[in-house]
């Protein structure tokens, strides 16, 4: 599903974000990427979302080389990816339903199909009764679940999450991780960047550890 | 064990566990061409309605933007319409290029109409009008305001005149015709007053150039106004654009509502400009009619013809669209993510 081969990322100011990173992720796998601030977790996610290009090496996502992908192809690549942000990135002038429907509208699905899938996604995150509310009226945990519903509503092959539990209390964080596991069981590859080692240890999934842009650990969290 | 957990997870999300197992990566079903077309139309409808709603949410701001654009549009258009009216006032080129034949004072009154008929029969003459000496004096008395003084004259000093309207308005041909008419018996003098026609033509030509230059400048101003307005809309929706791009929205998808917004601004501006011109010309017309009446003319300003009004409206929509397109193209390239 994902293949990093000696991937490096050097910024124009000379800062090295990633240093010759190599690893593979199988289809349907659930893994964490961890490390301190500045370790390169966000850079890794940005490369996978084609928000940035690798400076060196080869980065393959579902067979596509992200170093070579054209700008016009990027939106179509992103349609295969769901992304969950720490700050939710919701549109507060739209309802919860409209927020979740956004990727489906972009995909060009019919209204009935959109309604069906959005209902399903909201049900998945236990927010069916909040569909017509504004995200501003929801709690932080509920907002995060709206973000997750939006990320999975179009049934992406890959789900990326950047510190999805960063602002949540431990109980809510565990609940959100449970939602991610449910999604993973349905076949979606899940990659979560998090520095919450305690939470990661409880989940017992594969964990990549980054330090200053280098991969220093790859194994099951314990 | 895993199978059991998968079934439970599938039930929680309302999915079919069998299909999940057979579809390792849960991509969406590809929509058909018909569905895509419907979705594309729906997306356009939604963008148009969304743009309308956003404009309606700021009625004062939207109105003033349209008004600024309308003023920029109505200035050159108004000048062009005034020039059209001036051309009409000057009469057609053919009429303006009349040759005046002053007949000899000694010529018998009955010779005048005969000479007029002879001239009217010429191939290159469209029309010939005879004005008798008494008619000429009468007109002069009316127009000069010297009626009483002229009555004191012992005899009518004015000659009879034949006004010749040529078929062609070519300077060389007119001059040749004038020389030919001057040779006719009974003609004292043949006068072709082309100079004022040329001057009027030059003035109108200058006016056309001025209107063209002004139009270019004001179109540029209009593009800047719409570009700046759309830039502000983009700034206000920056986070929305970022999210749309992150979930796979193409540039065309992002651009669409802004293009509709530009076209809507253009529509508002075009309609306002049409109204401004129609009312402006109507208001000016009262004064023009009064002035023309003092000169014994029934001249009146022509309003905005329907085809000109429609051209103005379509031009405004087009300019709004182009202005928005340029602004979005420029600002989208600056936005991250690409």
Automatic annotation (TrEMBL), chain A:
GO terms for molecular function: ATP binding; ATP hydrolysis activity; transmembrane transporter activity. GO terms for biological process: cell division. SMART domains: AAA. Keywords: ATP-binding, Cell cycle, Cell division, Cell membrane, Membrane, Nucleotide-binding. Residues 2-221 form the ABC transporter domain. It is found in: Cell inner membrane; Cell membrane. Pfam families: ABC_tran. GO terms for cellular component: plasma membrane. Its main location: membrane. Part of the ABC transporter FtsEX involved in cellular division. Important for assembly or stability of the septal ring. Homodimer. Forms a membrane-associated complex with FtsX. Belongs to the ABC transporter superfamily. This is Cell division ATP-binding protein FtsE.
UniProtKB/TrEMBL annotation, chain B:
Residues 1-30 are annotated as: Disordered. Residues 214-330 form the ABC3 transporter permease C-terminal domain. It is found in: Cell inner membrane. InterPro entries: ABC3_permease_C, FtsX, FtsX_ECD, FtsX_proteobact-type. PANTHER family: CELL DIVISION PROTEIN FTSX. Belongs to the ABC-4 integral membrane protein family. FtsX subfamily. This is Cell division protein FtsX. It comes from Pseudomonas fluvialis. The lineage of its organism: Bacteria, Pseudomonadati, Pseudomonadota, Gammaproteobacteria, Pseudomonadales.
